[in-house]
Amino acid sequence: MTSRVRDLGTLGQAVWLDFLERSFLTEGGLARLIAQDGVTGVTSNPSIFEKAIGHGDAYDPDIIQLVEGGARGVGDVYEELAVTDIRTAADTLRPVYDQLGGADGYVSIEVSPYLADSTADTIAEARRLWTEIDRPNLMIKVPGTKAGVPAVRRLTAAGLNVNITLLFALDTYKAVAEAYLAGLEARAAGGEDVSRIASVASFFVSRIDTRIDTVIDARVKAGDAEAEALRALRGKVAIANAKLAYQYYLELITSDRWQSLAARGARPQRLLWASTSTKDASLPDVLYIDALVGRDTINTIPPKTMDAFRDHGTLAETLVEDVDGACRVLAEADRLGLDLAGITAALVVDGVGQFAAASDALLGAIAEKRAALLGERINGLRASLPGPLQDAVDTRLEAARAEGWSRRLWHGDASLWTGGDEGAWLGWLQAGAVDRIDLEDLAAFAAEARSFKDAVLLGMGGSSLGAEVIAGVLGRAEGYPRLHVLDSSDPGQIATVTAAIDPGRTLFFVSSKSGSTMEPDLLRSYFFDLVERAAGTGRAGRQFVAITDPGSALERTARTDGFARVFAGDPSIGGRYSVLSVFGMVPAAAMGIDVGSLLAATRLMVQSCAPDVPPKANPGFRLGAIIGEAVKAGRNKLTILPSASLKPIGAWLEQLLAESTGKQGRGVVPVDLEPVGDPAAYDDDRLFVHLHLAGDQVGEPGARLAALEKAGQPVVRITLAGRDRIGQEFFRWELATAVAGAIIGIDPFDQPDVEAAKLKTRTLVDAYERTGLLEPGAPVLREGALSFFAERSAGDGAALLRTHFEALRPGGYAGFLAYIERSDVHEAALARMRVLIRDARRVATVAGFGPRFLHSTGQAYKGGPPGGVFLEITRDADPDLAIPGRRASFGTVQMSQALGDLEVLAERGRRWLRVHIDGDTQAGLVALERLVAAALA
Ligand SMILES: O=P(O)(O)OC[C@H]1O[C@](O)(CO)[C@@H](O)[C@@H]1O
Ligand SMILES: O=C[C@H](O)[C@H](O)COP(=O)(O)O
Predict the structure, then answer these.
(1) Sign of the dihedral through C-alpha 221, 226, 230, 232
(2) What EC class does the entry list (predicted)?
């Protein structure tokens, strides 16, 4: 059967198909074109795959199989699908390849457009695909970018078939031709065979006209004096450009340099006309076929254009016709100021961008399919945001996609944040992604831990809160010790834990990344002494385990004191991001939790947030964009509303968000444990996040969310189908915090203002050690059991409090900094006062127990958004607790911390008032509550 397409072959031109799709391959579409039309090759690109895989359900069975068969990430899923198609196409073309002795019969796959700016990455990816697909008639497409050209030489030298894509400019084509020659010469010089290597230079045609003609049309419309001359060039420049490229090719293959390679059996690098479907409906649909017919060239044609050519194409060797005319067209374009060089340069950048966008769309589509398949195995997130905030989030996600944030974040590109050392603090990404923990060793440790009745974890902030959430949400397994977390210097708190344990049957974790934090160090010496007294001198060490970064002071102490174990942290993970590392996993193992399955469940989220998942489909990015944009819109009070079983996560979220983002006068102020109110209680500075565990009662927060939503408040709902999905939230929020940090424009991995309070405290404690004195200052008022410390007096207690609260402005917040024992009763008393203030002043309220919050929200209170108005509560420790070998007691340390904290707050211009309770704490809180109510009345 004759075919006009096939007849192009008689004129020396090969026809390739610029299309690929699974059913087309499997149902014999390609085989038919080979047989009927003499098609001898296939090209693919990211847009072609996006059209094939990203729409419809043809690939769903494979996607299901891949996801179910190993819960792989979307990049892997895409590659499996693409590789399968490319192999099928290559195998279908293999008889052609064999018949022509390797002269044709190729199928091309493109390296990821994300790598277009990196020679090394392009080479590595090309080699990986070459090995993976493993077909002699494969061509790897490398873009003709600055970084791509040297890759062409190296890949050719390495023996790969290369198709150089996105060529628009003559000069770049010449550079690419040179790279091919140099690659072959390198092989020849090394005595390697050059005869089995093929290469094509893909010269893009229609896209040039699309650009030039748009400029022409605009100028004509604007009444350009040269309108007639301009119009005459419509649809002509790209073809003229291509003709000159072909002239260069003809020259090159007659050169001595080429001839000597040809003598060794080398094949010329053929010109391939790409982008040959007509984009402008006013031009003939076969324009870029008819006009580009020439010997030893290829035209890669999409199906519709091929049909059109089969129907009404013209067979003539046009490429060598009227070359002078082509020169005149280009000269005329130049005379008319049509900047071909500028346009072709821009087209390369655009081309990479377009293919990256197509890849993003495809990976996003696969991510969505994967999420649907995983169903409840992956935690859900729904957001109901006011219109402008939703728009800002959408815009941000799209910008983040275009700027490659997801990949840049995973690759540690510090320019996402402040360009500082952020890249050195991303170990938590890997902690979630791969097994960094020796699970076997952890299982052995868990078996050892069974002999203990209780476990006490001594650590502050990030070094204890993750373990506390795990204990609170997952609980311990039968037969394993009960975990108590002690993150305080409060004598009452310490006494409560001491009373709850049998020191001789308790395992102690001393958990500190730096190994120099004061509280765990003091607590270690307190409990070590206690155990020594119970178990006998020299025997305590075997009940102690250190979790600390290598080389820390704690590690040394642990060795000296004969600790049972020392677990080493990863120095590239900051404390607040450390839960999925040994800091969370070691205590979890001691509680009998199956760390392996917890991490496996977590990994589904990690994969959903992987670098190849575009921001919009990436659950961590989505949350981060919401948080970041909410902050930018003034909604910086992230109000945490967990269902009952998830309550412990609030404190962990607080430390993560506040310490990471609250600096330079910006960031998130997390609001935890503030009872949920009616819409009227809230201003427009909130973002509500509800976390719900399946099986929990909808309860208060759940029930009021709809009303808040209706009132136009932004509400995010996160759902967990099971307790072991808590790890997914750890990872999601860590990523979200890093993303929010990038949006807010701060370094989410430092904590500059925490250090200031630490320093002040240390100065006070050291002075006390020397002098035995701690100067708490003189109160401005004593009223019953309460003493008030303030910058100036203002009448009675209620008046002082009134003046204090009058400093609250819209968008500000009221903070309770309570240096008292953390207990349900005290928490409830604070919550009641918080509600009084919120409802009276429509401001957010926060509360923290000192010194616990110093290692968490303390950063944001001092360094974060201004407007915090702080009421510090202190009391004399009674009974107090001595610290072995020290003059200062725990009570003195705690008071030093309270005073140091206040000094720094004052230095930062924060509004403060201290109320000191004499005698019974509970009674003092009741009295204070009464005064707060009076002050607000
Ligand atoms: O683990 P470390 O070094 O004892 O620090 C405990 C906590 O203190 C902080 O450094 C803040 O003071 C937190 O970032 C950290 O989680
Ligand atoms: O190799 C083929 C090219 O990727 C393709 O021809 C580009 O065509 P387009 O410009 O129509 O997208």
Answers:
(1) positive
(2) transferase
